[in-house]
What we know:
This protein is 43% helix and 13% strand. By secondary structure, the protein is of the alpha/beta class.
Amino acid sequence: MHFIYRMTETNQDNQETNLDEAIDNLSHEDLCEITQSSIKRLIASDHLLSDLPVDVTPEEVLAQIAVIQGQSITVTVLRYSETPLNVVIPQQNTTVLDLKKAIKRSFLLKQQRQKSKTKISWKYIWKTFWLQNTANGKVLKNDKELVSNYDVINRTELRFVKRLSKSKTLINSPERSCCTEKYPWFEQITRQEQLTLSCNNLGLNSKANLNISQLNHILVDHNHKLLYCYVPKVACTNWKRVMMVLTGQSNATNLVSIPADVAHADTNALRLSQLPKKEIKRILKEYTLFLIARNPFERLLSAYRNKFSDNLPSSKYFQSRYGRQIIKKYRATPTTDDLDSGANVSFSEFISFILNEGHYETLLEDAKTILDMVGAPTMVFPVTRGGHTKDRLREYFQQLSIFTIQHLLKMASIKIPEQKIILCGEYGVGKSSLFRRFANNTFVTATDRKSTLGLDQIKKTYSAHGKNVQLQLWDTGGMERVASITSSYYKFAEAAILVFALDNPATFHILSQHLLDIVTYAENAKIFLCGNKSDLVSETEESSISDLDIESFCEQCHSLISATYKTSCKTGEGVEEMFSDIASHLIKSNQSKMELQSIEEHGFKISEEPEEIEESCLC
C-alpha cells in the first residue's frame, strides 16, 4: 500500500492548488449539476430537512424552512391503506379552500415523482368527500372558513369522510372514516403507487427501451381511450366481451351471450403491438391503461378446476396434452386408462407439475370504477359462473403439505437481490455518461449537457448463471469537482468501477487515490477498472495509456482489480457488456458466499433423524 499513499500525498497538493481555477472554468450546466447534487447531500445530512425527497423542489425547501421558523404548519392527510400525505400550509389566514389546493399540489407532485398516470377527478373528490379533523371530529364543510376555526394546528391529522345527504347524519366513528372504508378512487391510487414502486424496484422504469413484443396482451379501445392488459384466468374472457362492446365489435346487451371463442378471436380486438411505434408511444402517454390482478393461489385453483375438472372442449385439450404427462410423472401407480385419458389429475399432482416445470377479488367494483373513469356507457359486467373459487381454497389446499405451500409462496414472490455499485474517478472521465448509458442508453455531448435531473442512482436487472441481480448504480453528480466525496457514498457498496479516460494519462495516474478511498470506506467491494472514451483513441495510433500500463497498475494493486474494460459512452461500445459482466461477477460471488455459509453452518454437523410431522389443517 506504500505506492498508494505516496501517490495520494503528491496528488492532494496539486488538487488544492488547481481547485479555484477549476471552479472558474466550470460551465453553467456543470455548476447547476454540482449545485443540485450538493443540495441533495446537504438535505440528507440535515436532521431538520432529511424528511424531504432527494429530488426536492425549491418551493418544498422554503416551505420546510417556514415550518421550522413557525410561519407555516404541516398537516397530515390520512389515505386508505397507503402512506399519509404531508401538506404544508401557512399558519395564518389559510381557508379550507386553500388547504384543498395545497393537498392537490402535494398529491400531483407525488404522482409526478412516481411517474403515475392515474387520472384523478378533484371535482369528484371534493363533491363526494369532506375533510375531518381526527382529533375532535370536526368536519371542514365551509371552503371560505379559516382552518383554525376547526382547530387545525401543526401536526393535525385529517381524513376523508363521505358526504351524506341532508336527510342523513354524518357518523364520526373511525369505522366510517376513509382510513377503514374502501372508496374506489382512493383504492385505485393506492394500487397505482404500489405498482409503480414494484416496477421501480425491479428496474422496470418508463425509460427502458420499448419492446413491441411485450405489448401483444394490451387491447386498444380508441373510442374511450382505454387500454386493457389481459392476464389469463383473471376474468379476461369477460373483459374481452366488455372491450368488444366498447369498440363497437358487438351490440349485445347481455354480454354473457357473446361466445368465449368469439371474445378471444384475434379479429375482434386491436392489439397495441399492431400499431406503429410512434403511435404506441403517444397512446401509452394519453390513454388509461388497466389490468386486473388476482390472488395467486385462487388463480392456481381456478386454472386447475377449469382445465382439469370441467368437461369443456378446452378442458379435454389440456387433459390430453398435459394431464397424461402429469399423471405419468407424478403418480406412483397410474392405470392404463389414466395414462390414456389424463382426465383425473389430482390437485396435488397439478401443483407438483407447476412447482417443477414451469385483484380479482373486487372485480365488479373495479369494473365500474374503470368504466366510469373513461366515460363508458352503462353496462352490467358479465358473471358467467358461480365458481366460488375463493370459498373452496381451504378444501383444495388442505390436500397439500405445509412445505409445498411454502414453496408456492416463494415461487409467487419476486425478490431480486440488489447490489450497490459506485462510480469513482476524476471529474470529466465520463462517469455521468456511463450513468446515462446505464439508465436509458443515451449520450449527451459536452455542449448540450444539462443537469442530471436529480438522478443520483438508478436500478436495472440483469440475468446470469440462471439467477437475477439488480444493479443499483450510483453517480457522484460532479460533486468531486468542488468537494470531497463523503464516506456515505461508499457505504454498503458491493462493487466499485474505477473510471479513467483513455485519452488523458493524468486521470489514469491519479487512480491510486480513488482506490485508497474504496479500500478504506468500502473494503468488501469488488473493484473493476474501466478505460472510457475509447472512441477518442485513433486506431492507427497507440493509446497514450497502453495495455501494459493497465496490467502494471493491476499488478501493483495486488489482485484488487477483478476485471478491466474499455468503453465508449459516445458510441455505446462495451458499456452494456461491462455491466453484464459485472453482474455475472457479483452473482458468482454471492453464490460462493452462500456455499461457504452453508458449509460453515452444516458442513461438520451430524444431522438427527427428522421428526415426522403430522398432517394438519391450515387454521
